[in-house]
Amino acid sequence: QVQPVESGGGSVQPGGSLRLSCAASVSMFIIYAMGWYRQAPGKQHERELVARITNSGDTNYADSVKGRFTISRDNAKSTVYLQMNDLKPEDTAVYYCNVELRAGTTMRGQGTQVTVSS
């Protein structure tokens, strides 16, 4: 299995927006859920679930991003997106794509850096 490929990270000022994309290298038919985790600076052993969407479209979000972030997916492209609005400095982190397969295994991407700073 090939790692999911993330894109869309970068630097932005507080209040700005970014859109992350993650393309899985497998068919959506074998994917149970896709999501995003993040690891903030100085928290090397803590990965926070940011948002997750199942194959039935159910979503869940971290309390800290509700109302600001939106997760969506394109089944035809086996791709998940994370639209991030009203970004705050505390959103600064490396964001990792997570792909949960029906078989029970998980694929993770290499991460994309998001920096929010004035």
Task: Write a compact overview of the structure shown.
This protein has strands at 5-7, 10-12, 18-23, 31-39, 48-54, 59-61, 69-74, 79-84, 93-101, 106-108, 112-116.
Care to describe what's here?
It is a single chain. The chain is mainly beta and 118 residues long. It is built from no helices and eleven strands. The strands form two sheets. Strands 2, 4, 5, 6, 9, 10 and 11 form a seven-stranded mixed sheet that branches. The chain is globular, with a radius of gyration of 14 Å. The mean pLDDT is 94.
- Structural class determined from secondary elements: mainly beta
Uncertain segments of ≥5 residues (pLDDT<50)?
none
What's the gyration radius in Å? 14 Å
Tell me the strand percentage band: over 45%
Shape: globular
Mean pLDDT score: 94
**Helical proportion, percent range:** under 10%
Distance between the termini: 39 Å
| Helical segment count | 0
The sequence of SSEs as H and E is EEEEEEEEEEE
For the biggest sheet, the summary is: 7 strands, mixed
Total beta strands: 11
